Input
Amino acid sequence: MSTHDATELVRAVREEAAASGNRFLELLEGGDVPRERLVWLAGEQYRILGSDRRSFALLASRYPEPPAGDMFLALAQGEGRALELLRAFAAALGLSDMDLIAYEPRPSAQTYPAYVAQRAVFGTAGEVALAMLANLEEWGAYCGHAADALTERYGFDEEAVGFFRFFAEPPPGFDGQATAVIAAALEAGEKPADMARAARLLHAYEKAFWDALADGL
Output
């Protein structure tokens, strides 16, 4: 197995999980999402970021050697930076840190971080690398659209949408790191079908997050 095989696996998984629409973003771009749902967005993301940061730190401790260890440490640090940026979005909504802590998350919006945490404990570096890389392009596009809609339709300034701008672009070097981790996993005999399953499930759980935000609108 080679880097070419890893790249082809990523391409195949992305094609299988082609975007099927995002009703919440469609409503957001139309200016039809009420403020309370923006509060949901901030509150749910606060929980997700905290969970994912711990999950990536655990993965870094399980797989400390490069390139996996470097990749997971960078992801954990990125989640920490995103938490700081999220506070500006929350503040623009009138939410304090205590409000974010007190927010009660919706179960269907938290399946994504729950699955990442499960894989952090029981999964492999190759599974998580493929799932994150295959999902990154779609997630980044969603964040870019959200940032544009929030500034153009809701009047948020660039500081307030910094969280979404941060995720709109892939982390520097992540593509190469993740591809190297996937290639190493394939070389070690990890089954492509098992890795693709993790990516497929993660994609479904991200869709569940957006669907939860749009529920009832």
Summary: The two ends are 47 Å apart (CA to CA). The chain has ten helices and no strands. The mean pLDDT is 95. The CA atoms of residues 11 and 99 lie 41 Å apart.
